[in-house]
Design goal:
Layout lengths: L3 H8 L6 H8 L24 H14 L16 H16 L14 H12 L5 E4 L7 H6 L5 E4 L1
Parallel strand pairs: 1-2
Length: 153
């Protein structure tokens, strides 16, 4: 037997854009093979730049040893060395003001951050205003655990 939240999650389609996304996957853009194809913007995948990223990652890992902390757990706010590098990068290229690593938290994805933030800051029935169009699964991200409602702006 499922909880009320589990039952609601079970009967709610995970993606309201499933059909459109599936259709897009059958007609993906490729500069030579399918220049009239589409680029899905509703998922956090960047396959178009993967060949360049693969080369860059291969070069970096050939020249630099991967730190021992990579396969394990680190600080709940993210690996300290990574946060230091990210703070330096953001300070230089985005904020133009001092940014200490302890002012920065990183996550392997937005879903866990959005879900936990809604759980901590909101009560069931509260509303989150989200700029639209946006990632369609935000409704589940803020609703399944915290019980928040989504309002598209």
């Amino acid at each position: 037997m499922l909880s009320d939240r589990g039952e609601l999650a079970f009967i709610t389609p995970l993606r309201v854009d499933y059909e459109a996304h599936s259709e897009a996957l059958g007609n993906l853009y490729h500069p030579q093979d399918n220049p009239q194809g589409v680029i899905p913007l509703n998922v956090a995948e960047n396959t178009l730049s993967w060949p360049d990223l693969r080369q860059k990652i291969s070069r970096i890992t050939a020249e630099t040893q991967i730190p021992d902390w990579v396969p394990g757990y680190t600080s709940m706010l993210g690996a300290p060395d990574f946060r230091t590098a990210a703070a330096s990068f953001l300070e230089k290229h985005l904020t133009a003001c001092p940014l200490a690593p302890d002012q920065l938290g990183v996550s392997a994805g937005a879903t866990s951050v959005i879900e936990m933030t809604s759980f901590i800051l909101a009560d069931s029935g509260d509303v989150a205003v989200i700029p639209a169009p946006c990632y369609p699964v935000y409704k589940q991200d803020i609703g399944n655990m915290s019980g928040m409602e989504r309002y598209d702006l």
